[in-house]
UniProtKB/TrEMBL annotation:
Its main location: membrane. The lineage of its organism: Eukaryota, Metazoa, Chordata, Craniata, Vertebrata. It is found in: Cytoplasmic vesicle, Phagosome membrane; Early endosome membrane. InterPro entries: Endo/exonu/phosph_ase_sf, Ig-like_fold, INPP5B_PH_dom, IP5, IPPc, OCRL-1_2_ASH, OCRL1/INPP5B_INPP5c, Rho_GTPase_activation_prot. Pfam families: Exo_endo_phos2, INPP5B_PH, OCRL-like_ASH, RhoGAP. Signal peptide: none annotated. Belongs to the inositol 1,4,5-trisphosphate 5-phosphatase type II family. It is an enzyme of class 3 (hydrolase). This is phosphoinositide 5-phosphatase. The keyword Lipid metabolism applies. It comes from the Eukaryota.
Length: 858
């Protein structure tokens, strides 16, 4: 949420808080949260440092602790050539000096962190009498810290309001005088903390109770429209104000700028429309907003609940073309509300009636790739499913199958939604356990939400005459959840979709502070009884793993089971071998790579092998093999050695243009010695073989020829992803033989072509020519001159691809491609930098390539 509002309330009339940011100040063995505000007054700036509670809503929630004036040598100046005309005096800060208790004079800019770390330490250790009201009683032996709370003590105040206080209890327990289990007190590994957290989690029922809160979930595909009408019929449809709002949008902006640069003014427009339409009988705080191209999720909470929201993280994942483009994918927010972990996902899955398998794949990709970092860096990232409650909203795009448009409309007219729902693709896929396993969805007793003529309640009258479908859905997973309503909102007509809402009543776990303290102290006492001489021990299910027929971009995994057969809990971690920077080769991952196992407990580690464009080149030519030794280290125990081997199937993906032009046979039929010899040759060396090389790689020709013959009129070519299973078939055909035609859809072949170009170790325009291309991007003649200087095989590939793309543009009326789209997609593949590109460089590469799309080059 925007916490600058709270800071602004503490300032004078002539002072303005430009931006606020929450940060952590690192101290000796822990960190403390602070709220920083960049404050401006009379063209002078200073950083105001506040202590605060978790969510700062008003001035009452923050306390000014320190001020750091931004002097001249501290400033960030846009125009480095302009000299300052006046030295800042910061006289406006004088009135704040008296307000900063416990501090000396206002500190000068650039003071080291240590200069104000001591007062912060004092602040943490010293509790003012006024802060003791409603706080936890001090635990014996300083095993706990006091809870600060505002207002009169009540049943609500008996709960611990944030995770920080529980962490403080855990942290301070390591200083107990009676602690004899020294093996658990190693701060660098936090073994004791992990053990206490684990035991607290197992005993959670002893100190928590359920309290119901209302969650309003809404989803709306706005089809690139502006907010032309009030959203109150949708967002204020409940009699009582909800406790939390999670509002999702799709297709927020359909412009090319939004698609390629993820920038849109419509974010602010729709956010304003939402804030104005929230229930009028309550005040809400914006906690988090996250957007990926046109997919946006906004999370609001009643202001009185804001202090109980913690551990907020947001992530995105694109499932569009090449698994990166964000026109399809998901955004998600995870947070802790009281003692419950909640994840909200807003997704936009693949379109078109026949693409239900692609939608299934999108769902699985989102679940596996979307991960949240944890506050504790020793813990592995959290996936979507590792939450108490998962709320999933969005345009899931599942359609009605096996019925024509008239039959569907007839069932809608009769309001026979039960029969119509039996033809719903999502219902069928859930029944087959293909997607959303363990999720629930309320009964659908409203008409399909897609597709309408924009601005009306009339079904699609366009030439395509789309079959009505329930594209927009809301599902959930978790315990103690009841749905109060599930409905569409016909009164909102800005889009070709209708918005959908659901009100869920969710039982949230709250903490009883007295019961928590007793449980905590009992756990600490039990830990103290552990004897020092107990050595951790593990038994492993296997010590050797072999991965058979590893292929490019084909995930393989084996399971390693660990069982704690020792007398004490243990902490494990895969560690680096001597002279190596990581614990494994880059194609190998252990998930999780470190963790904690209680006594008698077990865990499963997935050893995952995945060869991508970075690791494929050396594996293709035989410079590297699928071979590694993992060292599993047991803290205060011994090391275990795990052997990982496999056989890799060479692929044209990740092999150089030069090498492929010198292969007349499929790469998997080539001797290893030949592959290595070709990899070590240079394109400048024309004596590599006595046989004349191919003009272009045969694999590239197969894909382009397939598209030329079958896809010149294909709508959304190079913009809609294919199926991963079909990509695997295409890859195998190219690597093992050259059939008359490639398998898979046009979209799968198009994506396979893009992935091929992306995987080239040296791009079509070699790195050595990159800077020259940028410098001449505005001059078409100079651009052609650069291409004429490329190595012959690279020049042939470039001209061949440019000619093919010009043919596509001749059919733009049917395939909906234009120069800007093709230049953006292909320039990033053909003209790559060995370093990260900035926005200006990306624009220049597109300008360079556009010359070859708008005119014939020599």
């Amino acid at each position: 949420m925007d916490q600058s509002v709270a800071i602004q309330e503490t300032l004078g009339r002539e002072e303005n808080c430009i931006i606020a940011a929450q940060c952590d100040i690192l101290l000796d063995d822990f960190s403390e949260s602070r709220l920083l505000g960049l404050v401006e007054s009379a063209k002078e700036h200073a950083i105001f440092i506040y202590t605060h509670r978790r969510m700062a809503i008003t001035a009452e929630d923050v306390s000014l602790e320190d001020i750091m004036p931004i002097s001249l040598d501290f400033s960030v100046v846009e125009d480095a050539c302009r000299s300052p005309t006046q030295v800042p005096k910061f006289e406006w800060l004088n009135k704040y000096k008296k307000a900063i208790k416990g501090q000396a004079a206002v500190k000068q800019a650039g003071a080291p962190l240590e200069a104000f770390s001591d007062p912060i330490n004092q602040h943490q250790k010293i509790e003012k009498p006024s802060e003791k009201k409603g706080s936890l009683e001090k635990a014996k032996n300083s095993n706990s810290v006091a809870q600060k709370s505002k207002g009169n003590p009540s049943q609500d105040n008996q709960s611990i309001s944030s995770r920080e206080e529980r962490d403080d209890l855990v942290r301070s327990s390591s200083h107990t005088a009676s602690n004899k289990a020294q093996i658990l007190a190693m701060p660098q590994f936090g073994l004791r903390d992990n053990l206490i957290r684990c035991e607290l989690l197992k005993s959670e029922d002893l100190y928590t109770y359920l309290e119901n809160f209302s969650f309003f979930l809404g989803t709306y595909n706005v089809n690139g429209q502006n907010p032309k009408e009030s959203l109150r019929p949708w967002l204020s449809c409940t009699l009582k104000p909800p406790d939390l709002y999670c509002v999702g949008f799709q297709e927020l902006d359909l412009s090319k700028e939004a698609f390629f640069f993820n920038d849109t003014p419509k974010e602010q427009e729709w956010t304003k429309a939402v804030s104005e339409a929230l229930h009028a009988d309550a005040q809400y705080a914006l906690v988090r907003l996250i957007r990926l191209v046109g997919i946006m999720l906004i999370f609001y909470v009643k202001k009185e609940h804001a202090e109980f929201i913690s551990d907020v993280e947001a992530e995105t994942v694109g499932t569009g073309i090449m698994g990166r483009m964000g026109n399809k994918g998901a955004v998600a927010i995870r947070f802790r509300f009281h003692n419950s972990d909640i994840c909200v996902v807003n997704s936009h899955l693949a379109a078109h009636v026949e693409e239900y398998e692609r939608r299934n794949q999108d769902f699985k990709d989102i679940c596996s790739r979307l991960q949240f970092r944890q506050l504790d860096p020793t813990q592995p990232p959290l996936t979507i499913m590792k939450h108490n409650v998962v709320l999933w909203i969005g345009d899931l795009n599942y359609r009605i199958s096996d019925l024509d448009v008239e039959s569907v409309k007839d069932l809608i007219t009769k309001k026979d939604f039960e029969t119509l729902h039996s033809y719903d693709q999502l219902k069928r896929q859930i029944d087959e356990e293909a997607v959303f396993v363990g999720f629930a969805e309320g009964e659908i007793d409203f008409q399909p939400t897609y597709k309408y003529d924009t601005g009306s309640d009339q079904w699609d009258t366009s030439e395509k005459c789309r079959i009505p479908a329930w594209c927009d859905r809301i599902l959930w997973k978790g315990k103690n959840i009841q749905q109060e309503h599930y409905q569409s909102h016909m009164d909102v007509r800005a889009s070709d979709h209708k918005p959908v809402s659901s009100l869920l009543i969710i039982g949230i776990k709250r903490v009883n502070s007295e019961a928590y303290k007793k449980t905590f102290e009992e756990i600490v006492r039990n830990i103290d009884k552990m004897e020092n001489e107990c050595i951790p021990s593990l038994s492993l299910s296997e010590r050797e793993f072999h991965f058979k027929d590893v292929k490019y971009m084909q995930h393989q995994a084996e399971r390693l089971s660990l069982f704690n057969d020792g007398q004490v809990p243990c902490q494990f971690e895969f560690i680096q071998k001597p002279n190596e920077s990581t614990y494994s080769k880059p194609w190998l991952t252990a998930n999780p790579s470190k963790g904690f196992i209680p006594q008698g407990g077990s865990t499963v580690i997935e050893l995952e092998v995945f060869v991508n464009r970075f690791t494929a080149p050396d594996l293709n030519c035989g410079k590297q093999e699928i071979e590694d030794i993992l060292v599993l280290h047991l803290e205060r125990g011994k090391d275990y050695f795990i052997s990982v081997t496999g056989n890799y199937m060479p692929s044209c993906y990740g092999t150089s243009i030069y090498s492929l032009c010198h292969m007349r046979e499929p790469i998997q039929d080539m001797p290893k010695e030949t592959l290595l010899e070709l990899a070590e040759k240079s394109p400048k060396d024309d004596t590599a073989t006595t046989e004349k090389p191919l003009d272009i790689p045969k694999e590239l020709w197969m894909m382009v020829d397939h598209l030329f013959r079958n896809a010149l009129n294909q709508e959304d070519l190079f913009q809609q992803p294919g199926l991963r299973t079909e990509f695997a078939e295409i890859r195998d055909c190219l690597d093992s033989g050259m059939p008359d035609s490639l398998p898979g859809s046009n979209h799968s072949v198009a994506e396979a072509l893009l992935l091929f170009l992306d995987a080239l170790p040296e791009p079509v325009i070699p790195y050595a020519f990159y800077q020259q291309c940028l410098e001449c991007c505005a001059n078409a003649g100079q651009c052609e001159k650069v291409i004429s200087m490329l190595p012959l095989c690279h020049k042939n590939v470039f001209n061949y691809l440019a000619a093919f793309l010009r043919e596509l543009l001749k059919n733009s009326a049917s395939n909906r491609l234009d120069v800007a789209i093709l230049a953006t997609i292909f320039a990033s593949l053909l003209l790559r930098s060995s370093k990260k590109q900035d926005f200006a460089e990306k624009t220049k590469t597109q300008e360079f390539f556009q010359h070859f799309l708008t005119q014939h080059s020599s």
